[in-house]
Amino acid sequence: MKKLLVVYYVILSFFGGLVMANASIVYLEDFDPGPGTFGTEYTEWPVGMDPADPVTNPLDAQEYAIDTSPVNVHSGFANYFDHTSGTGDGNMMILNGALSTREWYDTVSVISGQLYRFSVWASTAEQRNPAILELKIDGTTLGSSFTLSSQLGLWQEISP
3-state DSSP helix/strand/coil percent for the chain, to nearest 5? Predict the structure, then answer.
């Protein structure tokens, strides 16, 4: 069963105490101007010598692209824009998902004993199988799994 996931922001915020309004961002991956330092078990699209074409060579299972709209990488995906501006100026990570695969990961330095808030903005670009997300830090699941809405282009913040 294929799952499609579109990620716009991955944010790790540091809180100087229990008051969340005092957050300082210690890590931000916004995919501008393209792939950052993150890791993935997916293959970057287009693969090999194949041209980047959403009709004749669409984003396939376990492939990802950094682009401004899902329809640019697969003609069967919805056309919508980034979470913040909504104008098509910003990039997003578009994944044609698979079960039991790490879509995105990175190493971030933190201070022991400090409070942190981890959040991800994600949306669905194809209605049949909305993604089920499980967020982990050091192999430990944060909260319970989260199923994205089947409403196309609805950005949802996941913050366990």
Answer: 5, 40, 60
